[in-house]
Write a structure and sequence with these properties.
Distance between the termini: 59 Å
Number of strands: 27
Helix content: 25-40%
C-alpha cells in the first residue's frame, strides 16, 4: 500500500536542501514564448504560469490544443530534469468561465451562471472547464471568484456569483467540484473581502468580524468543504494587516478553525504590495517572511527566490517555518499525482477541446443564464409575422463573451462556429426576414420601417474597471487599462461610438416595437429610458454560444427561466444596495427615492405563468421542510425558481430582514403540476450571538416562500428555544 501524500511529502522534504525548499515556494511567469523562452526560464521554481496562455500573440492563427499541450509538457520535462529530486512543477492559469490558455470552450460569465440558480449545471460546466484545463497540462486554476458583489460599482462584479452568500457558496462549491474531478486544483479567490464600499477594487476592508463571519467568509468555507485544494489571498487589508500577511485569516480561521489542508497562493504581486502599496514591510525579504510565516505558501507570479533566501539568512524566517510551507506544496503535488503522471496527452487535448459535447453545454448554460426583465407583450417574436428586423448597438457585431479572463494573452478569443448576435439572427431568420444593422445615425431612417428593433448595449467591465456611474457609457475614445490585474488581464480597450441612452430613446420614439438587450456584467442605471422600452432582456455576457441562445429566447424557441443573482438599483445613489439588509432605525428611502430597487434579487419573467400552491411546513429534530406544488398555468414549457427566505426577530442580536436559505428549479409541463420540497437543516436557523458564538440561539423565525425576494407567497412561523426548533403555536 502506497504511503499517503503527506507522508511521501515529509520524506522528500527531509532530503531537500534549503535552496530546493525555497524554490518550491517561488513561481515564475514569462510573457513572451519566443525562441529564447527556455533560456530565460528558471527551471527550478515550484510553480509556473503556463506558457500556453502566451503562445497565441503575434500569430495569424491561434496555437492548437495539441501544440499548447506539447509546450507545457516541454516545460514540465525541463523542470523535472533540472530538479535534484525530480520534483515536477505545478503549471497554473485562469479559468473563470473557460480554460484561458487558448481557444477553449467559452461559457457564460459567472454572474450569468449564477442566474441559472442551478448548481448541478455549474458543476457540469466546471467539469468541462477542468477537462480542458487538464488536457493541456494545467493543474491549478485561480477560480472561482466567491467574493460577494455587495456594491455593483465594482468592476469585477462580472466575475462573481452575485450578492448572496448562499448562492455564491453553492455556485463556487459546484465549480470547485467540477474542476477537481479532473485532477485540477481549484483556487477560490480573493480571500477575503476584496473590495470596499464605493466598489473600489482591493481597497482596505472596513468590514467587522461579524459581517465577515455572517456573509463574506461562508462562500469560501463552502468551496473548501467541496474539496478546493488552494486559495488565493486578496490584495486588500483587513483587521490591520494585508490579507497576504494576515495570520488571523490564513492560519487561525482557514487552518485552525476550518481544518483546511491545502496551500495558499498570493494574488499577483500581492506580497510585493505589502511593501510598496500597504507600506508595512521595509523590504521584499521582510514582506516574504511576513507572508510565509502568516500562512501564505507560494509567492506569485514572479521569481522571488532571492527575497526568500535573504529572509532566511537574516533570521526573518527560520528554515523550520519554511518547512511548513514547503510541506503543504509538496503534499498537494503528491495528492495531484504529479510525481506519477506529470504529462498530458496532446492528441487527447486536440480531440477534447471545444468538442461538440462541450459546445452543446455552452449553449445550454447560455439558455439558463439569460433573464427576461420586462415584457409588455412584444416577446416572444413570431418568426412568420416578421419581415424586417432592425439591429443597433456595436455589441451586436461582437461574440458576447466579455473582455476579461476569456481568451489567450494579447489575442482575442475566436471560434468559427461562435456567432455574433447579428450573425445568429440572420442564420435563424433565413431569407424570409431581412435583418438590417444600423448605426445610431441610421435610427430614424431604418427603425420606422422595421417590425421590431433590437438594441444591444455596450460596456466594458472587469478587473481595473470600477465605475462611479452606472449609466451606459456614452461616446468615448480608446482607453487602455493596466492595474495590478494588468498582469493577467490584457489591457482593455473601450471605444463606445454611440450615445447609448439617447439612441435607445430615439429608437423607441422612431418605433415603439423595441427590445433592449443588455450585454453587461453588472447592473445598469436604466432610469432615463426603462419606462419607454416595452421589453428588456438581461443577457449578461452569455459566452461563445450565447448569441444562439439569445436568438432562441427572443423567438420563443427557448423560454427564459433565469433569475437575478444581484439587486438592480434605480441609480448609483442607492448603493450599496442588497436585499438581505439589516433593519433600519428610521427608514429605507430618500427624499427623492423610496429606496426600493428597480428589480429585486431573485426576479425574472417567463413566457408562461406558474402558480405555487398547497404550501405546508413540517418540523422535527432534523430541521424544517417546506412542501409545495408548482403548476404551469400557461401554454409553453418553462422553469420556475422557487425561493425560501428566512427572517428573524427576538434574537440575541439584530438579524437581516431576510436571507435566502434554499431554492429549487421546477419544470412542470404546460397544464401540469409538480410537487417539490425545500429542506433546511438546524444550521439554517443558527447565528452568531453577542459573544460571536455560532449556534442555535433563541429566536423567532419566519420562513418566506416566493418567486423573488420581493414576491413572497407563503409564510411560516417557527421558534428556536433552548436549542430546539418548533413550529410557532
Amino acid at each position: 500500500m502506497q504511503d499517503s501524500p503527506q507522508t511521501r511529502a515529509a520524506a522528500l522534504l527531509r532530503e531537500m536542501t534549503l535552496e530546493e525548499k525555497i524554490h518550491q515556494v517561488t513561481a515564475e511567469m514569462l510573457f513572451d514564448v519566443e525562441e529564447d523562452y527556455d533560456e530565460k526560464r528558471d527551471p527550478l521554481c515550484g510553480s509556473y504560469r503556463n506558457p500556453g496562455h502566451f503562445m497565441h500573440q503575434n500569430r495569424e492563427t491561434p496555437a492548437t490544443p495539441a501544440a499548447v499541450a506539447q509546450r507545457i509538457n516541454r516545460d514540465v520535462s525541463i523542470s523535472i530534469e533540472a530538479q535534484p529530486h525530480r520534483i515536477p512543477p505545478i503549471e497554473n492559469g485562469e479559468a473563470l468561465h473557460g480554460a484561458q490558455w487558448g481557444m477553449c470552450t467559452n461559457f457564460p460569465q459567472p454572474i450569468g451562471l449564477a442566474s441559472s440558480f442551478d448548481p448541478a449545471l455549474v458543476e457540469r460546466v466546471g467539469d468541462v472547464i477542468g477537462s480542458e484545463v487538464r488536457a493541456a497540462g494545467v493543474r491549478q486554476v485561480f477560480s472561482p471568484v466567491v467574493n460577494l458583489a455587495r456594491d455593483c460599482r465594482w468592476g469585477r462584479t462580472v466575475e462573481t456569483y452575485g450578492e448572496d452568500a448562499l448562492l455564491s457558496g453553492d455556485m463556487g462549491a459546484a465549480m470547485c467540484r467540477g474542476l477537481q474531478k479532473n485532477g485540477v486544483i481549484a483556487t477560490p479567490k480573493h480571500f477575503a473581502d476584496n473590495y470596499a464600499f464605493g466598489g473600489r477594487d482591493s481597497n482596505y476592508a472596513e468590514t467587522d468580524e461579524r459581517t465577515m463571519r455572517e456573509t463574506i467568509l461562508p462562500p469560501f468555507k463552502a468551496c473548501f468543504d467541496a474539496g478546493a485544494g488552494s486559495v488565493m489571498a486578496a490584495y486588500n487589508g483587513w483587521n490591520g494587516l494585508p490579507c497576504s500577511v494576515n495570520p488571523r485569516l490564513l492560519t487561525e480561521i482557514l487552518r485552525g478553525e476550518w481544518g483546511f489542508d491545502g496551500f495558499v497562493v498570493s494574488d499577483y504581486c500581492g506580497v510585493e504590495g505589502v511593501r510598496n502599496a500597504h507600506r508595512l514591510a521595509g523590504s521584499d525579504a521582510e514582506a516574504a517572511a511576513m507572508a510565509l510565516k502568516a500562512g501564505l505558501d507560494v509567492i506569485l507570479p514572479f521569481n522571488r527566490f532571492d527575497a526568500v533566501k535573504e529572509a532566511v539568512e537574516t533570521g526573518l524566517l527560520t528554515e523550520q517555518e519554511l518547512d511548513r510551507n514547503v510541506l503543504r506544496v509538496l503534499t498537494a503535488k503528491f495528492r495531484l499525482g504529479l510525481f506519477d503522471e506529470p504529462y498530458s496527452d496532446p492528441e487527447k487535448a486536440q480531440a477534447l477541446v471545444r468538442c461538440e459535447a462541450h459546445k452543446a453545454l455552452a449553449l445550454e448554460a447560455a439558455r439558463e443564464s439569460i433573464i427576461l426583465l420586462k415584457n409588455d407583450g412584444i416577446l416572444p417574436l413570431r418568426k412568420k409575422a416578421i419581415r424586417k428586423i432592425g439591429v443597433f448597438g456595436q455589441s451586436a457585431k461582437l461574440i458576447p463573451i466579455g473582455a476579461n479572463y476569456s481568451g489567450p494573452y494579447q489575442a482575442p478569443w475566436r471560434g468559427e462556429d461562435a456567432p455574433t448576435p447579428l450573425e445568429a439572427l440572420r442564420a435563424y431568420c433565413g431569407a424570409q426576414t431581412e435583418v438590417v444593422f444600423g448605426s445610431s445615425d441610421d435610427i430614424e431612417r431604418i427603425a420606422p420601417d422595421c417590425d421590431v428593433n433590437l438594441y444591444f448595449t455596450t460596456i466594458l467591465e472587469g478587473e481595473g474597471s470600477d465605475r462611479s456611474d452606472l449609466r451606459l457609457p456614452s461616446i468615448s475614445g480608446s482607453r487602455e487599462q493596466d492595474a495590478a490585474g494588468g498582469l493577467i488581464v490584457d489591457a482593455a480597450r473601450q471605444c463606445v461610438t454611440d450615445d447609448q441612452e439617447q439612441s435607445i430613446l430615439r429608437l423607441c420614439k422612431a418605433n415603439p416595437n423595441t427590445v433592449v438587450i443588455l450585454e453587461n456584467g453588472a447592473p445598469i442605471d436604466m432610469t432615463a429610458w426603462i419606462d419607454r422600452v416595452p421589453a428588456l432582456v438581461e443577457a449578461w455576457y452569455p459566452g461563445e454560444q450565447g448569441a444562439k441562445a439569445l436568438t432562441e429566447i427572443l423567438f420563443g424557441e427557448t423560454n427564459p427561466g433565469a433569475k437575478l443573482p444581484i439587486t438592480i438599483p434605480k441609480s448609483v445613489g442607492q448603493l450599496p444596495l442588497c436585499y438581505s439588509y439589516k433593519p433600519s432605525g428610521r427608514g429605507y428611502g430618500y427624499c427623492d427615492d423610496d429606496g426600493k430597487p428597480l428589480y429585486p434579487f431573485g426576479f425574472g419573467l417567463s413566457y408562461t405563468t406558474f402558480a405555487v400552491s398547497d404550501a405546508s411546513l413540517s418540523v422535527d429534530e432534523t430541521g424544517a421542510v417546506v412542501s409545495f406544488r408548482v403548476e404551469n398555468t400557461g401554454a409553453c414549457a418553462g422553469a420556475e425558481v422557487v425561493q425560501l427566505y428566512l427572517g428573524s426577530h427576538g434574537c440575541d442580536v439584530v438579524r437581516p430582514v431576510k436571507e435566502l436559505k434554499a431554492y429549487t428549479r421546477v419544470t412542470p409541463a404546460p397544464g401540469q403540476s409538480a410537487l417539490a420540497q425545500l429542506r433546511l437543516t438546524p444550521d439554517a436557523f443558527c447565528y452568531y450571538d453577542r459573544a460571536m458564538r455560532f449556534g442555535p440561539h433563541d429566536g423567532h423565525h419566519t420562513l418566506m416562500l416566493g418567486t423573488s425576494s420581493d414576491e413572497i407567497l407563503f409564510t411560516f412561523e417557527l421558534v428556536m428555544k433552548d436549542g430546539r426548533l418548533a413550529a410557532a403555536p
